[in-house]
Write a structure and sequence with these properties.
single chain; about 120 residues; mainly alpha; Helix Hairpins; 3 helices; Mnh_C1_su; CPA3_antiporter_subunitC
């Protein structure tokens, strides 16, 4: 399970870095989103992956703390997802405004001509 999670995090990170280095602003925004998803998976994975473990409370009463799942990474990832959606919406608005002012969606504001 850890190998699949680490391979997914690596693939998202590699794709995000590749898209961040592209010259178009839309690709940069998608790259930032992929990087934020990779970081979310990384934080979620740091909370130890457990199968069939109670999230917070055991119905039988108090027990050993080692059998519980840590809720802090889950709360951090949930907060990061909400912030990521807001960040993506803000970036898209800035992208549309920048394209309206400059007439292009290049990161540096001008098209390169290949003569």
């Amino acid at each position: 399970m850890e190998l699949i999670l680490s391979a997914g995090i690596g693939a998202l990170t590699a794709s995000g870095v590749y898209l961040l280095l592209r010259p178009r602003t839309y690709q940069v925004i998608i790259g930032l989103s992929l990087l934020s998803y990779a970081v979310n998976l990384f934080i979620f994975g740091m909370g130890k992956l457990r199968v069939n473990a109670p999230p917070v409370l055991n119905p039988a009463g108090a027990g050993d703390l080692a059998t519980y799942t840590d809720p802090v990474p889950q709360a951090l990832v949930l907060t990061a997802i909400v912030i990521g959606f807001a960040m993506t919406a803000l970036f898209l608005v800035v992208l549309l405004a920048s394209r309206g002012f400059t007439g292009t969606d290049h990161v540096d504001g001008r098209e390169q001509r290949h003569d």
